[in-house]
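Inputs:
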Amino acid sequence: MFRWLILLLIALTIAMIVCVRILDRNLVKNLAKNRKTVVHLIWNAVFTVVCYTVFLLIPPWYERAAAFASSFYYIATDWLVVHLVLFCVSYTRREYAARLPRRLIGMLAGADSASLLINPFTHHMYRLNLSGPGGWGTSCWKIQVKLPHVAHRVFVYALAAYSLFLLFSRMLQVPDIYKRKYGSILLHTLMVLVINLICLALHTRYDYSVILYASLAMVISYLVMYATPRILLERIVGTVVEDSFIGLFAYDKDGHCVETNQIARELLAVEGDIQAAAEAYLARWKEEHGDEDSPAGGEEQVLERDGKKLYLYITYQKFLDAKGRLQGSCFRFEDRTQMVEKFQEEQYKASHDLLTGLLNRSAFEQRVRQILSEATEPYCMLSTNIKDFKLINELYGAEVGDRLLIAQAQEIQKVAVEESVSARLYADRFCSLIPRRCFQEDHITEHMAVVVEQGPGKAFRLHYYIGVYDIVDVDEPVWTMYDKASMAIETIRGDYEKFISYYREEVMQHMMEEKEVLGDFDKALAERQFQMYLQPQIDRNGDTVGAEALVRWAHPGKGMVNPALFIPALERAGLIYRLDLYMWENAAERLQEWKRQGWEDLSIAVNISAKDFFYIDVCQSFRRLMDKYDFCPKNLKLEITESALMENMRENMKTLDGLHELGFDIELDDFGTGYSSLGMLKDVHADILKLDMVFLRDTQNADRNKVILKNIIAMADDLGMAVISEGVETQAQVDFLRQMGCDMFQGFYFAKPMSVEEFEKNLRQRALTRRENCVSL
Ligand code: C2E
Ligand code: CA
Ligand code: CA
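Outputs:
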């Protein structure tokens, strides 16, 4: 027995020293504080066991040495329990424990130690008596206890009891998962105490509790520094794994499944043995992907679940130790369906028009760029919009407008092939990029007819426009292409028969010029850049009887600009009336001037545009001129084209009557160029017929034209109308017209339009020569 006890104590001592070494090496950072107290505790236990072992080995004849060994043993137990308490204080983290009178305890332990140290001389605490032979030639000692020794025991038991109390009270407080942490130490300490008491009570030969001191120290070190944190960690990780939103398959180094969770089962729809499924999964993965870690963020796998898409992100990760040896591996399965769907929704919102589901501006641009960069065939850009869409919204409500837009988007998508793309830019502005081969007018017409049917009703006939631009340069900015397609639309505005128009460079050039003209117009009018030119009108005798007022634009940048370049633009823009008012006023002012100079018989013919009737009260305007200037209305001739009158025949007739009443003569301009019908002559109360000479320039039908002209002149004569021919360029024309009975002439043959100064100068010159002729006669 003795031998085994000694060997056991030596083994325990070695084990404890090894234990301290291990603790030193595997230092876990956040356990550093506990480690210190644990190490102190172990060294104390070592000291206690060594002292007791030495005590047992001391020969019987060396009593003093035995007395010292026993003293040291008791001193060691003192400090062992002191350190046990200190350990419990730090381990249980009890607040009141922190206020423990450490110094007092230290002093008591010190006093007890000192008392024990002098005991071999004084024997005031106990005395050792031989009680028979021990093992290996040693003997057993019996302790004859005295009262001070009882105080030592009380001190030791009190501290031990306090440690138990700390552990117990802490244990009651903590959640179940932590109870084991305190419970195991509590149990062990209790065992030491009980065994110690039993040994004491039974007066056993040896104090067996010494063995438990050592094991207590080691158990504490194992539990505190290694087992409990690991168990806790495992349990916490286990809970996290189970409660996590991430599916998990974990494997050991041989690929055996060691951990799975419910989420993984659900995500991968595993039925039955999940361990086997996980192992099969790993094997399959390695076959397909090799044995490498998957990239950070995982690999996306899209699975079908109940008809819905499941976006799974799978990460495979291996765990290696410091030497690079495989420890294990795991799969993480993250269900990112919600995230992906949200992202897709955001992406959709950012790139689509939410009303129609077509792309929006920026997405369209990107897609067009992409398609064109890979294009192997010609493409065209379409721009569509609905006429008066704003009006539809205002008259029938936004709902009807929206319905139309959706219908249009649907039809557009039907035209679309894979390599085409469409977008709604804003309001009723749609644009599409389609391969040229897919663009067929009749096909598009059919689709648009469907949209027209969805129109607000019979009262409002829907009209839409499509501008087509055949892409020549694929590197051109997308919005330039779109602008070109839209510009093509500009050329059909107002034309109800036409709804598709193609971009042509010349047309657009012209449009650009027109835009420029319109942009300069206001300033030009304010700065009086427009000038009145006069083209003389000659009677049968060769006398100048008047002139036609023709506008010229003295443009600061472009020089003298002919009206053909800006009048049509001003007419389209509804601005012509402002220029005409200006010209009429100039003419009236000039007539007033001439009247003052004594040229009362000279007349000026001004042009009235068809559009003037829309924008102003023509009668009223001339009445105002009469009030403002002193001239005879007979001298201000009003030139109106027949087509202008025909646009709103009845109303315009009234205007003509009004003008007649004011005393003005009406000239029917450009007669013979438009839809002139001779029958119309009797309905229109004009005073003068102004024949256009384009007839006579048409040499192919020269003879027929002459017959027509002859009849027109005759008829005008019958109706009491004077006839003036304009555009007369040759002597032959003059002769012929004179023969036909034409009264007056205007044309380059006589003079080109000239400035007022020049016109007046010529008049004066002619009057002078005539006077000279008279004098010489
Ligand atoms: P229009 O009223 O028929 O004017 C006659 C045009 O024929 C003038 O062109 C004139 O220069 C031109 N012309 C005169 N004699 C001959 C000739 O022998 N041969 C040829 N080839 N042409 C001749 P212009 O001045 O360029 O005016 C063109 C048109 O512009 C005018 O046609 C008229 O419709 C319009 N216009 C001119 N001034 C005004 C204006 O103040 N108001 C309005 N509303 N229109 C105007
Ligand atoms: Ca004219
Ligand atoms: Ca004319």
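Remarks. The pocket of calcium ion (ligand 3) is lined by residues 669-670, 690, 692, 726 (CB under 6 Å). The first helix runs from residue 2 to 25.
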